[in-house]
Design brief:
single chain, 214 residues, alpha+beta, 9 strands, 34% strand, binds flavin mononucleotide, Pyridox_Oxase, EC 1.4.3.5, Pyridox_Oxase_N, flavoprotein, Pyridoxal 5'-phosphate synthase
């Protein structure tokens, strides 16, 4: 395994030009620009991000999910209130989100407080999902053991029948959350290893930013 790992290339993408001196004052503006570039350059599923949370004892856990929105307030995602991540956020509302866009050798890291966006936004998000996605979410019973994949498919089929019969059904445990950024880092990899890290921090006066050593 060690030899295999060492034989693999890293940072093999094609880095677009990035001038940190011309970066905007607002990191979410830069995020939107970088995201648009990722889409233009064909980065696969650039909206997939790793969300890290920690429980009441500080034990971390991380998983991939999709970004649902980005606005001036922050980054939105959606999940089930019965999930481990929602349990973590209920007791420790601090989160970190990271994106890795390999084809453009770019990483973006966001950290901040997470807040529940409320029942209305959550219902809108749920209803905007495809019927298959709504059924997949509605079929799960995290509080019960899952004996087989066949059980899972059966539960999803039943949920799909309910959704087809009742298109306005909203899963009551579906939750939209917002990560309100306090620190945002833009990492532009470089073939010569002079990677550029531009870090934004928010305080009472607003955003400030500067370079840090890679
Ligand atoms: C590409 C991808 C997208 C995903 N999108 C979501 C999502 O938007 N919301 C979500 O709750 N889980 C999503 N998941 C599943 C999570 O990674 C995770 O397995 C699940 O939410 C349970 O996580 P938890 O037990 O840590 O809460 C996605 C997984 C992958 C690989």
């Amino acid at each position: 395994m060690r030899e295999l790992l060492r034989s693999l290339p890293a940072l093999s993408g094609d880095a677009p030009a990035f001038d940190p001196d011309a970066a905007p004052d607002d990191p979410l503006e830069l995020f939107a620009t970088w995201f648009a570039t990722a889409v233009e350059r064909g980065v696969p599923e650039p909206h997939a991000a790793t969300l890290a949370t920690a429980d009441a004892d500080g034990r971390p856990s991380a998983r991939v999910l999709v970004l649902k929105d980005l606005d001036a307030d922050g980054l939105a995602f959606a999940t089930d209130a019965r999930s481990a991540k929602a349990g973590d956020l209920a007791v420790n509302p601090q989160a970190a989100v990271s994106f890795w866009w390999q084809p453009v050798v770019r990483q973006v890291r966001v950290a901040g407080a997470a807040r529940y966006l409320g029942d209305g936004v959550s219902a809108d998000d749920y209803l905007a999902r495809s019927p298959a996605s709504r059924a997949a979410a509605a079929g799960v019973r995290p509080e019960e053991p899952l004996p087989s994949v066949a059980h899972l498919r059966h539960a999803m089929t039943q949920a799909r029948e309910r959704i087809d019969a009742e298109p306005g059904f909203v899963l009551p445990t579906w939750q939209a959350w917002l990560v309100v950024p306090e620190v945002v880092e833009f990492w532009q990899g470089s073939a010569d290893r002079a990677h550029v890290r531009l870090v934004y921090r928010r305080d009472v006066a607003g955003w400030s930013h500067g370079l840090v050593w890679p």
